[in-house]
Amino acid sequence: MNTFIDMETVSIANRLKEAHYPFPRAQELRTQFNSCLEDYYAKAMSSKPFEARGLLVTGKSRMGKSHEIDHLIRAFNDSATPMPDGRPARFIQLRLWARNSLTDLGSSTLEALDYPAAGKDKQARQIWEMVFEQAKRNGVIGIHYDEAQHAFTDTGGAKNRTMLDNFKALMKEPRWPMILILSGVDGLSEHVERVGPEERRQLRHLLRPVRFQPIDPKADLNELNGLAYAYAKKAEIDFDPLSNADFFDRLCHACGKRWGLVIELIIDAFIRCKRAGEAQISLDHFIDAFAEMHGTPRDFSPFTAPDYQELFEPDRLLEILNQED
């Protein structure tokens, strides 16, 4: 018996976290993604130099952007879709965790291309030349940079312009153009759209915008209900006791109207329900899940407080969670 890992909990969590709910927002993302691919394929057939297009995916933190893009790219890579040269095309993905110089970003991109960055002693231009060579050699037609706001700084105007030029070069390189997906918080759009020379503004015109909107408890009530029942079915739990507008309004408030956090809390509550050997969900499961997530007393909860909208500040709760991350 493993004294550190409860395998029953792991099994339940794995079953729920593997599930993927088909949000309407994902359809817009897929439509734009397919459009970029079709544009790329048509231009590649001509055997003439061309520029690729890409996506600029933005929204507040914990909105589920990374999950949706990852799901889409994994599906594309698994499809082994052939390009005009006959080779299956694929995308690579990497997440930017902190401020990146152009050299750092190039080295990380090389590593994502399965090429250990022996380029640490090389200049940025040499490293990016290696990126193009490796991408072409391996049929990589696109790159997704998650949390791409970390490629920029609030004060480094010259550095930011250099980064924008580099992103533009990835899409316009005549030897091997690549589809670029930049995703991140709302501030990312400000960096990409910042006024500058016409050449730099071209990057914005090459990127199709996709915005992930916060939850509207009233307009999205049916979507919330469908989401909860989809996970309840996966967990074999009866969700009927909580299928009402008041509960979903409290759930949205507790999660700062972020889809990603709503899913996390639903999964945590369902795991508690299963571990307790119960077949029907109750408010207690969500109260306990919220208290553990935020480190708050169990009897101080947005799921029970009459004046929860005044007592709980979603932005402050999210601030604490982001600090923990």
From TrEMBL:
Entry superkingdom: Bacteria
Region forming the signal peptide: none
Database matches in Gene3D superfamilies: P-loop containing nucleotide triphosphate hydrolases (3.40.50.300)
Location of the ORC1/DEAH AAA+ ATPase domain: 52-189
Molecular function via GO: ATP hydrolysis activity
Protein name (record): ORC1/DEAH AAA+ ATPase domain-containing protein
Species name: Martelella mediterranea DSM 17316
